[in-house]
Amino acid sequence: MKLIFAQGNPEPEHSLSRHNVGFLILNTLATIHNAKWSEKSKFNAVITELNIDNEKVLLVKPSTFYNETGPALRKIVDFYKIDIENDLLVIHDDLALPFGTIRIRKQGSDAGNNGIKSINAHIDANYTRIKVGIHNELHDKTDDANFVLAKFTNQELTLLIEKIIPQSVKLVAQFSNNSLQHTSYKNLE
After folding, report:
1. Which runs of consecutive H residues, i.e. helices, occur in the chain?
2. What's the pTM?
3. What is the CA angle 166-3-90, rounded to 5?
4. Looking at the DSSP assignment, which residues form a beta bridge with residue 45?
5. Which of 71, 164, 174, 186 is deepest in the core (most CB within 10 A)?
6. 3-state SS class at 34
7. How far apart are CA 128 and CA 130, in angstroms?
8. What is the rounded distance in angstroms from the CA atom of residue 63 to the CA atom of residue 114?
9. Coil vs helix vs strand at 151
10. What would the pLDDT profile of 145-166 be if each residue is shown by its tens digit?
11. CA separation for the pair 103, 79 (Å, rounded)
């Protein structure tokens, strides 16, 4: 079993914010597979299950705030006995990467991302990540918190829908069949 855990904020007003790019990717995956989300209060998450290349895959969106996702992930990892090193994929935005960049990494520091800091405080940091770049020139005009909570621009949403989310969906499939390479995809614009 593979566990795909996305970072994001559960409130509807944040659904198209930069911090919720992981949720957007999982929502697309669920739609492609006709999967229905189910609230699991014992895990502080909404979960759906699907099959990708004959591998059982859990998609998880925590119902906690972005910066407090570690406890939810810990509960799910323990309950399903997930092998963190081989079967956990976390998808999150990355403020240091330019918009249009996707980077796949195994382990690493939180790099100032408070959601990853929460996860790393609750599980071993030796898990795979898909980091989706969100940095653009607007970031230089505002603080980090306001930038990550702001909605994507219409131009960014178009690129997300046409390029970034489809590429991310392919990467999740590769992770599910153990063929994901740790690399970067740049200039998906």
Report:
1. 21-32, 70-80, 84-87, 114-122, 144-149, 154-159, 165-176
2. 0.95
3. 60
4. 40, 62
5. 164
6. coil
7. 7
8. 16
9. strand
10. 999 999 999 999 999 999 999 9
11. 29
Quick check: helix, strand or coil at residue 137?
helix
Query: For residue 189, what pLDDT band results from cuts at 50, 70 and 90?
Result: low
Alpha carbon of 3 to those of 25, 48, 104: distances in Å?
Answer: 14, 10, 16
Q: Which of these is catalytic: 19, 33, 92, 122?
A: 19
List Cβ neighbours of 137 (8 Å cut-off, separation of 6 or more). none
Asked whether 5 and 91 are in contact (CB, 8 A), the reply is yes
Any idea which residue has 């290349």 for tokens? 53
Q: Which domains does the chain have, with CATH numbers?
A: 2-185 (3.40.50.1470)
pLDDT tens digits, 75-86 = 999 999 999 999
Tell me how far apart the alpha carbons of residues 181 and 160 are, in angstroms, rounded to a whole number: 21
How many angstroms separate the CA atoms of 121 and 67, rounded?
11
182 is catalytic: no
Distance CA 56, CA 67 (A): 28
Structure tokens at 107: 């382990």
Q: How does the average pLDDT of the chain come out, rounded? A: 93
